[in-house]
Amino acid sequence: MPGWPVTDHSGLQALAAFAVEAAPVAREAGRVVAIAAGQLRIRGLGNSVSLGECLVCQTQDGPVPLQVVRIDSSDIRAAPFLDGFRIRRDDIVLRAPPHTGCPDEAWKGRVLDGLGSAIDGGPAIVGETAEEPPVAQGRSQRILSACRVDEAFRTGVAAIDVFTPLCYGQRLGIFAGSGVGKSTLLSMLANSGAFDAVVIGLIGERTREAREFMTETLQDEARQKAITIVATSDETALMRTRAAELTMTTAEWYRDRGKRVLVLFDSVTRYAHALREIGIALGEAPIARGYPPSVFAALPKLMERGGPALNGSGGSITMIATVLVDGDEHNEPIGDTLRGILDGHVVLSRAIAAEGRYPPVDVTQSLSRLALRAWSKEHRLFVSELKALIARYEETQDLRLLGGWRPGADPFLDKAVEMVPVIYDSIRQSPGDVGPLDPFDAIARRLKSVAESKTEEKKNAAFSTAKGQGASSFGATSAFMGG
User: Fold this and answer.
1) Architecture of the domain delimited by 11-95
2) Nearest 5°: phi and psi at 31?
3) Which pLDDT score, from 0 to 100, does residue 129 have?
């Protein structure tokens, strides 16, 4: 994709053109009465607009698309989709039809912005028309109509397939601090061949990372069936939240047509940051480390859009989202909230990454709530033993470094010291490596090989000792007899 990304806000231009090219008929209009950072106060439209509706502000620099974010008794507040426009008091504001691109098969292999407009330098997407949102089903119907999530699949990442296996329709979080390897692990999962479509939401990412993810990380096969929706960190908070919502809307469109969809969401934390910007600008009180209540209300609404289809089509949305843990504090508000919403979490450790062991998955802290549906009975017993060995190995690390471990005093610890390095080496994997078809068998074979090697060494050592003792006795006896 040469020259990507290209700033071609065709969707925004089409939305703004509504105010310029519309037929000269009488229309209700408002005007800007106050301007604050990131939002406008508009009077004259309060009785005719709804929350989330699109507007257009006529400025001297041209039409500016807006979205209603709050409705008061006498006026409304709206936020612009783009920065850089000079908006003045008394500028005219008009209502506009909603413009969010309607998902289509033509979106595969393309890169879009938060409004569904192509930004990859390719041809414009045909049929970028608004679509009425589907009527929400009742809560009881939605709960009882959902299919069971119980069919497992292989991701190709051995550490996840063994210790935190996934099922179609599951929602998993990857928790880590900055620079530990969340995006790298996400890129490994993006190339899974178990899905009909892959929807990638890059929310609040760096421009460089977004470009590299599309051009270097994704393999050709995955790139052809991937839809990437990007809102970089320098875009407005409104555009970032809109991109997150469009990511899930696109995935739902494919799921309702019987497709198995993989959603890679990077990252939920930056989506929460965008919500925080909007909430604080509207005057909400920050209740938890600067986050207003609306953030914690919006997160489950977004996450619950994943899962199996309700219409019996067989489609599903499997969601893997990264969570940026501020200051490596895993109990911070966003991470703690998401652990209670998601169906599992993979914790990446900075200490493991510092050792050069990738992916740096902390298997003792990671959990899949659907693991029992993915494992067979033999797999469950095998993984339980592996986790017990790893837990004993890690909890005695300081003791062993201080010289407090003596071989033979604790047979289980001896086994852990012998086996755990082999386990770690078995799940070591670089982004370009292809995981084993059966990771359980691969680990079992390596452990068996090490056990047999140790047994052979003990036999040889015992034989050498016995042989040495026999030779010494024979020599002593001969000397005695010769004396």
Assistant:
1) Beta Barrel (2.40)
2) -145, 155
3) 43
